[in-house]
Amino acid sequence: MSQPHSSIELVPAVTEEEMTGYLEEYCARDAPPSPLHWLREWLSDPFESEQQREAGDTTEERYRPHPLLLTLSIFTLVAVANFLYFSFRPH
Length: 91
Fold this sequence. Notes:
Blueprint: H1 16-26, H2 35-43, H3 50-55, H4 67-88
């Protein structure tokens, strides 16, 4: 007794070049982060752990900027205030 012929089509043969292309596509790196995402990560708090950032734990506290960014902002604000004060005060 022979078995009946199956109506299921067999998978077409894949050449080595096609398989290499499929593997390269599958193993390709993720898309690089956008400049805005990169800037936000660069300015984020360095003391926050990487796992907290990836998990997105926003229940504990909100986004904290990098301490150097705060220092630079305050320094710039003082410099602009001094410039405006000494530029526009009457002699």
